[in-house]
Design brief:
Distance between the termini: 90 Å
Helix content: 10-25%
Structural class: alpha+beta
Shape: elongated
Largest sheet: 7 strands, mixed
Strand content: 25-35%
Order of helices and strands: EEEHEEEEEEEEEEEHHEEHHEEHEEH
Length: about 475
């Protein structure tokens, strides 16, 4: 036979699942070598008197040596329990160690005999989410969905388990623009990845559950290409408070460890999607001024919508924030600054972004005449590059080659708001036209000269005037 010396407990015997054998049993013989003598803990010699005989070369009888062995086993058992308690940090003792040892001479043909037990490899299963699970939806309050991941490990009875979860939400936003000849040109994609981590526990095959914590402290972030002019820029922090808003495709990774921090199994699985749900029109309008409502109405595509309600094209998939070239997303379609991650998936944050931009544009519009007077609508850098404080497009320094000290302030709300609305989409609505462009003291007037390929200033003001008389545009309500 084959013998093992100095084997440590516990001892596990593993056999192949198919062997050619004439027996359906596993037979084990275990002995303990004490100073060259193989002795038994139980009376298997069949002779009571033999237990009282001195063992050759020693001062012990069989019964005395038996007592020594039993005492030694109790001491080892206690040491083993203490070691495990210290290693695992547990406060309660292990389940009792059951002796099934035979200590006796190998001349005795005494065996343990038992049925063969088939031991299967532990199998880890992620029950939820899966690729076939219904999508989880961001509520229109807005509020992230309640996502409870579920898993189970089968064919394992080795005690309590720790499940380490990684819940990844990622999406690639393709973008495009048009060149001067009207041809569509692809831009670098915007790639968002948010990973949430946590743990759950289970014991002997029970289903474990873990609720995804959509909060900053439980997550890591990787947001690439938010600004299309700096495609390689990576933002590794979240700028939307402690509550995380994100969406896209879900992928789950799960690692299971035993009480000794040993990995029992691991798995990765494609999950469902997190998508958005549109609020009611009344919710979108709530708390907005008329001018702000007009901005939302004109910018949103379709009207008053933040999320796509159908698969419209490769850039607009159902449940995702509505995309409009080159960098616009959601209700307010802000190109610069483009929406951050939380402003993509939280419609109220997107609306707030648009309100802030509109306020900035009205301040710029009100200060525009002053910059014409003091020759500060544009300037040159030390490198000789022209920078514009006012969005004169196409860029042309001939608009204001010098200060025009008699440029008049805007005198009506109409003047200011037309300039403001135009600037939200890009460009100027008004241009100061001096009577003598060569004379900085020349008189002149403001003329309509939209500096972009749109006339948003006129369009928005017409809607505003109609609303004042109860004449609302189609789709307003």
């Amino acid at each position: 036979g084959v013998y093992f010396a100095d084997a440590l407990q516990p001892i596990k015997f593993v056999a192949a699942d198919s062997l050619e054998s004439d027996s359906g049993f596993v037979r084990l013989r275990v002995g303990t070598d004490v100073s060259g003598f193989m002795m038994t803990l139980s009376n298997n010699t069949g002779a009571e008197e033999k237990q009282k005989e001195l063992i050759a070369g020693t001062d012990y009888t069989h019964n005395e040596l038996r007592a020594v062995f039993e005492n030694m086993m109790e001491e080892k058992k206690t040491e083993r329990i203490v070691e495990k308690i210290k290693a695992s940090g547990e406060t309660s003792p292990e389940a009792p160690i059951i002796e099934a040892c035979y200590i006796g001479g190998f001349s005795h043909s005494i065996y343990w005999k038992g049925d063969v037990i088939t031991i299967n490899k532990p199998k880890l299963v992620i029950i939820y989410p899966s690729i076939n699970s219904p999508n989880d939806t961001i509520k229109d309050e807005p509020q992230m969905p309640k996502v409870i991941c579920k898993a189970q490990i089968k064919n394992y009875n080795g005690g309590p388990l720790t499940f380490e979860w990684e819940y990844k939400v990622t999406y690639t936003y393709e973008r495009f623009t048009y060149d001067k000849d009207g041809n569509q040109v692809d831009l670098c994609p915007r790639i968002s990845t948010t990973i949430f981590n946590g743990v759950s526990h289970s014991y002997i095959g029970l289903i474990t559950e873990w609720e995804v914590p959509f909060i900053r402290d439980s997550a890591s972030f990787n947001y690439q290409g938010i600004y299309r002019k700096n495609c390689n820029h990576v933002l590794s922090n979240y700028e939307g408070g402690n509550d995380i808003f994100t969406g896209g495709n879900v992928f789950v990774e799960l690692t299971v460890k035993n009480r000794y921090d040993e990995i029992i199994s691991s798995i990765g699985k494609i999950g469902n999607r997190i998508i958005g749900d549109n609020p009611e029109i009344s919710e979108v309008k709530n708390g907005l001024t008329t001018h702000e409502q007009i901005t939302v109405f004109l910018e949103s595509r379709p009207k008053w919508k933040h999320f796509n309600e159908t698969d419209r094209n490769d850039y607009n998939r159902i449940g995702n924030p509505i995309y409009g070239y080159p960098d616009g997303f959601g209700l307010m379609q802000a190109d610069y600054p483009s929406a951050k991650e939380f402003q993509l998936w939280n419609w109220k944050a997107n609306r707030e972004l648009g309100k802030n931009i509109l306020n900035e544009k009205i301040n710029r519009a009100e200060g525009y005449p002053g910059r014409v007077r003091n020759f500060s609508t544009w300037y040159k850098t030390k490198a000789g590059k022209i920078k514009y404080r006012d969005p004169i497009a196409p860029y042309n320094e001939d608009w204001y080659p010098r200060a025009f000290k008699n440029a008049l302030d805007f005198s009506t709300d109409e003047d200011i708001w037309k300039e403001t609305y135009q600037r939200y989409r890009g460009g100027n609505y008004w241009k100061w036209e001096p009577d003598d462009p060569r004379d900085e003291n020349s008189t002149g007037e403001w003329i309509v000269s939209p500096s972009q390929s749109h006339n948003r200033g006129e369009e928005a003001w017409d809607i505003y005037e109609g609303i004042q008389t109860g004449n609302y545009p189609n789709g307003w309500n």
